[in-house]
Amino acid sequence: MKCLLVIDMQEDYVGDSRNVKMYPYKAKELIQSINDKILEYPNESVIYIVNRFFWEIGRKPKKLVDGLSVVSNNVFEKRKASCFSNKKLSEYLQNINASELELVGVDGNYCVSASAIGGITNQYKILFNESLVGVGNYNKFKRTKKKLEEMGVVFMP
Asked: Is residue 103 within 8 Å of 126, Cβ to Cβ?
């Protein structure tokens, strides 16, 4: 089964009140494009990943960005860069016989790339949808992309 992993599309990183210098993504376009991609998948195959650092545990839960289509209750929290640090996500993917994962979200140099590496390590075919991944530093991303390609990640335009 093929699944869509929507990574870190939360208010902190792509919302209107985010730190734009730190997170310079074209948020509105990215959200709309990801919403269009979500429509291509059955609801149960759409999985949302939110980042919550260990020091934020006592605070209110992280919120997916306003305007993002949420079509399932498949929301998994992570505390490290790779979404595969959450064992419940790994269990869910095994239970639904996932074999191929398309990654979208932010940031291509950090959590999305770390999740791509985690997916490859866990024997998944990883599709990195470059047009649906926000990247803050394109010079760094050239190196990141080369490394991921060498590991077997498939890049989509």
From this structure: yes
β-pairing verdict for 125-134 and 75-78: unpaired
Domain ranges of the chain: 2-156
Is residue 15 a contact partner of residue 27, using CB atoms and an 8 Å limit? yes
Cβ(65)–Cβ(9) below 8 Å = yes
Per the omega criterion (within 30 degrees of 0), is the bond before 107 cis?
yes
Question: What are the b/e assignments for 138-150, b being 16+ CB within 10 Å?
Answer: eeebeebbeebee
Q: What is the chain's pLDDT, residue by residue, as a tens digit (157 residues)?
A: 999 999 999 988 999 988 888 889 999 999 999 999 999 999 999 999 999 765 556 666 678 999 999 999 999 999 899 999 999 999 999 999 999 999 999 999 999 999 999 999 999 999 999 999 999 999 999 999 999 999 999 999 8
CATH of 2-156, one of 3.40.50.850, 3.40.50.620, 3.30.300.130, 3.30.70.1350: 3.40.50.850
